[in-house]
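Data deposition worksheet. Section B asks for the primary sequence of the deposited chain exactly as it was used as input, without tags or linkers unless they were present during the calculation. Section C holds the resulting structure in token form. Section D is free text for depositor observations; keep each observation to a single sentence. Incomplete worksheets are returned to the depositor.
Section A, Depositor: J.P.
Section B:
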Amino acid sequence: MSPKIPPFPPREFATIDEVLANIPAGVAQDAPLVPSSRADVPGKVYIAGGGPGALDLLTLRAVRALGEADVVLLDHLAPQEFAKYSPNALIVDVGKVPGKHAVPQSRIQQLMIDYALAGKTVVRLKGGDPYVYGRGAEELDACIAAGVDAEVIPGITSAVAVPARAAIPVTLRKVSSIFTVVSGHSGLNEAEVNTLVATLRANGTVVLLMGVRTLPDTVAALTAHGISADTPMATIENGYSDAERVTITTLENSGRDCAEVKAPAITVIGEVVYYARDDQQQFVSEVHEKLRAQSTS
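Section C:
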């Protein structure tokens, strides 16, 4: 039986702009963002993965760290209901979303370090896993360079978990034994396109993160390199949320079928997409029968 979560008193919440607004005029941009006095015993930084968005997919270690937190630096894609686990924490929104002030990575790292040197326990809560396009390694390096104790807490990566919401496995016995995860945020260079082409030609699976804006270019590059236009493709928007939506299509038809897809979304390309099920647990494609027989033989 799951333990009951007790009600917690209201906690303080601050935007990054409110935190930065407390810096006196004329103070250097790399100056500490919290009181300059150092604690006799420094605090600790936890760089924690929040998983794909559902609160109950946080790891037990992440929940324990949140319970100890004095400060939580929150990413946009981290579980937004996590605050019940942080009864006494100042929650600072440092998320990067379109149309909102983008917080430089250096400023986020400085916040982590300054709060820790002031004796605070800091949780840097991210979506997914900190080491999968999460800049966790940079933040760990910054803490170590500043003499701050830091620990990385892995999270469930959306690259695997979100496709699973549509019952799409990234690997499938005798169908796909390899998968490649790539960020489409800035578009793909020739070497990256060649890697995806090689993956698909090896009957592997491609998982594209942060690639909604550049999806037409990605599809065009794959087909220009000889990948079949009828290769199956799926996009899963807002995984593990009430706004979740799954679109099953092919490379050829993706321009039409994915025209209304909005970020955040994950794209899966490859034969494993034939294993997708709808919300009634029915297979979307009849091809699954062939794959199931193949994978269980």
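Section D:
Confidence is low (pLDDT under 50) at residues 1-11, 23-33.
The CA atoms of residues 176 and 204 lie 5 Å apart.
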